[in-house]
Amino acid sequence: MDSMATRFLGILIALAAAFADVEATATEHRPPNFILIYADDLGYGDLGCYGNTEIATPNLDRMAAEGLRFTSFYSCSPVCTPSRAGLLTGRYPIRSGLTHVLFPYSKTGIEDSEITLAEALKEKGYATACVGKWHLGHLPEFLPTQHGFDQYYGIPYSNDMHVAERGDPPLPLMRGTEIIEQPADQDTLTRRYTEESIRFITENRDRPFFLYLPHTMVHVPLHVSPEFAGKSKRGLYGDAVEEVDWSVGRILTALRELGLEENTLVIFTSDNGPWLIKKEHGGVAGPLRNGKGTVFEGGVREPCVVRWPGKIKAGTVTHEAAMNVDLFPTFVALAGGTVTGDRAPDGKDISPVFFGTGKRADQEFFFYHGSELRAHRSGPWKYYRPFKETVKEKELEHPEMLFNLEADLSETTNLADKQPEIAARLAGEMTEFEKGLGAVPESKR
Predict the structure, then answer these.
(1) Between the chain's N and C termini, which has fewer beta carbons within 10 Å?
(2) For this structure, is 135 an active site residue?
(3) Which class is 368-437 in CATH?
(4) pTM score
């Protein structure tokens, strides 16, 4: 090779190296991608990494082994709609009026005045998609594409809301604002959600993206693809959980194949606790008291695993308490943004917990059932005001209760009489919180 050719080859190699450095630098300084996977009605004790021995969840177990597992992660509500409202606004549902479950006959939904996580991230240049169950209003003005999501594919409410006697329409599957299948074939929903999610990730691999994947499963009626039917030791419920686990594995594999693993924060959690009255078609809360529809620990404490290779230390378990409203300010902070004004979130930036560099700003959490504030956690203590609830058509009266969750995770020993000062302090904090809310909107139904 003559000297000119040698010099030319050297120039080409230098240019290629320079372009590679530029691309690596651009990727290094690009804000992280976010994938938030939200199961429905999944119990605290339903995953292998939380002690389940009957349901195989190898992908979620691996995700926990490669990242962080919370033992004390909460939903702000024990039912669907308010839980999702809190998640996507970072605010307690009482502030948005989304305190009750919406139905196909509901005429209300999330208001334009609310700032969603998708809207906040779009301000920072993110591509956004919602794939799965929405449940914040099914009319056009309430759908995801009107609230910060570039794309939507899924069902607009719970998969059991097709009761002909009530006047419900057949369950719709939507793309954007259009119904593309009615009734939706639920056997293939989890698989199709997964394919849609991977398509979005692939199409947006060269820019920051936010994928919100609220699975329809494992809400009843339970459905699975033929490949998963009859595979679990836990019956159809276990089959459905195992297919959700498969979905997580497919998404993690896609990230690795696209070279996106080290710049993508993936979180898996659930909207509320298990629907215990469904028995074998519902999940389990493990050691926790009660389940969905109650603000006892079984209704609001959720499994939560977080993975970000190179940023979050593998195999970490944290006992720090956190809540789904914290994910809004955490994602926005990691994206380099801020949200202020009258829509500032109640949640706190918990990225220091992820990275093992600090704690949540406080350990104060408030729990509503509908529009009624019933419980408050402060540090290890959880306090319940006296309240009534209907269980199996019987009205139960609960007295004032106080539990030390560090010593009594199952909430079996009421210490309100033995620790009156602590009970009075937490009761007073609940009153002060309510006063600080000011005027709140009427509850939407």
Answers:
(1) N
(2) yes
(3) alpha beta
(4) 0.93
Distance, CA of 30 to CA of 80 (rounded, Å): 34
Beta bridge partners of 373: 368
CA distance 74 to 363: 12
Instruction: Give the pair of three-digit tokens for residue 258.
Output: 């696209």
Return the CATH fold of 31-359. Alkaline Phosphatase, subunit A (3.40.720)
Tokens coding 422: 């602590």
pLDDT digits (tens, 9 = 90+) for 222-258: 999 999 999 999 999 999 999 999 999 999 999 999 9
Q: Are 139 and 107 in contact (CB under 8 A)?
A: yes
Count of residues making up the chain: 445
- Give start-end residues of each CATH 3.40.720.10 domain in the chain: 31-359
Measured between alpha carbons, how far is 222 from 215 in angstroms, rounded to an integer?
12
Give burial (CB, 10 Å; 0-12/13-18/19+) of 257.
exposed
Helix axes 58-65, 235-257, angle to 10 degrees: 50
3-state class (DSSP) for residue 379 = coil
Partners of 375 in the beta sheet? 367, 384
The single residue listed with the structure tokens 């002909």 is 164
Tokens for 297? 């620990």
Which candidate, 240, 245, 239, places its Cα nearest to that of 218?
Answer: 240
- Provide the CA 352 distance to its chain's centre, in angstroms: 19
Residue intervals in the chain for CATH 3.30.1120.10:
368-437
Distances (CA, A) of 213 to 53, 149, 163, 296: 26, 12, 25, 26
Task: Provide the angle, in degrees to the nearest 10, between the axes of the packed helices 327-334 and 80-89.
Answer: 30
pLDDT digits (tens, 9 = 90+) for 186-208: 999 999 999 999 999 999 999 99
26 CB contacts (<8 Å, ≥6 apart)? none
Beta strands in 204-323 (DSSP E): 209-214, 264-270, 301-307, 316-318, 322-323
